[in-house]
Amino acid sequence: MTAKTLDDLLQEGVAGRHVLVRSDLNVPLDDGTVTDDGRIRASLPVITALADAGARVIVMAHLGRPQGQADPKYSLRPAADRMAELSGRDVRLADDVTGDSAREQAAAMSDGDILLLENVRFDPRETSKADADRETLAAEMAALTGEHGAYVDDAFGAVHRRHASVYDIAGRLPSYQGALVARELDVLSRLTGDPDRPYVVVLGGSKVSDKLAVIDNLMERADTLLIGGGMLFTFLKAQGHEVGASLLEEDQVPVVTEYLRRAQDGGCRIVLPTDIVMASGFAADADHEVLPVNRLTAGAHGEKAIGLDIGPETRAAFGEEIRGAHTVFWNGPMGVFEFEAFAHGTRTVAEALTESQGLTVVGGGDSAAAVRTLGFEDSQFGHISTGGGASLEYLEGKTLPGVSALETAPAAGQAGAGA
Length: 419
Known about the structure:
Blueprint: H1 6-12, E1 18-22, E2 29-30, E3 33-34, H2 38-52, E4 56-60, H3 77-87, E5 91-93, H4 100-107, E6 114-116, H5 131-143, E7 150-153, E8 175-177, H6 179-192, E9 199-203, H7 212-218, E10 224-227, H8 232-238, H9 253-264, E11 269-271, E12 275-279, E13 288-292, E14 306-310, H10 312-323, E15 327-331, H11 344-355, E16 359-362, H12 365-373, E17 383-384, H13 388-396, H14 401-407
């Protein structure tokens, strides 16, 4: 069954109806200030479209991992304030998820109003492994909408979670796929279907163990894998190189060795760095030098040296591969981009993507934060995903609970919507 869309809901009519919208407002904060509002900006089109059509919009979202406790540092207040600034609308914030404040404010809403519930993860039932707990919370969420409510899932960053506000709620209300989720699925399906070639995948980040399944799956689809970030040292170790004090997952060396063997036997090309920026320690002002991969411990800091970025020779090679591709997917920074001295590899990859004439997809998470931190505009890329983990699980070939739930959700007018 195909999920119904936001357009379907708008055509049915939303004026005077309460509509629950699951958005992704899991934004980085610094002392209560939103430092990257990309996810808020991406969420606003659906929220404002519903409000403009006269819906009474109740937004649900999470922030961080408060472990089922109402922790002020994970409050959605900064997100609500930023939503109000960007939209030019009043955005009220309930004091709880489905408690007295949420119920009273939902009941008092007028057409076009926007209410944001407090962090859904303040309620331990949101992430409970017990179906009954999540279903009870979902019923309380649905009850906020009254007799003619509806649910829109526009939080792609959470669709890989079997949580109450993502999965269970879809069985309680007529449910629809938000425009952001639809866009994400459309782009990712192009990466796993029949992408324009050459198809280059750039993988970075800290741990190779986080990306084993996606590497395994993409080796059957991509033409070239470019490996950077902390995960590259496990690959170099598998080739017999010494990596000093660099991040290394020794237990994954056999798995990586098998990937390298598969590549040699005719699978996709795996391109590894040929030089690394090795530093005296993990610090922004650490002394550092560029060394070839076969001499990473031969520099001034010997076995204590730690690799924090790819070197200039590798940057040039990676850039050439990316610019020559017709499809590029990038997930994970090439180095510690938060430190200027070690941001050159990540910046080079981003610049190469902006110069590519093909489809370029930035796979959310740290990659999305990196391009914005380094001064790039979202419009310079074909697509910036709002869901790092969800993107990877889709590319692994996994079923996403939040997506499948929409495909089996009750139709409009079906009994039990607010039960």
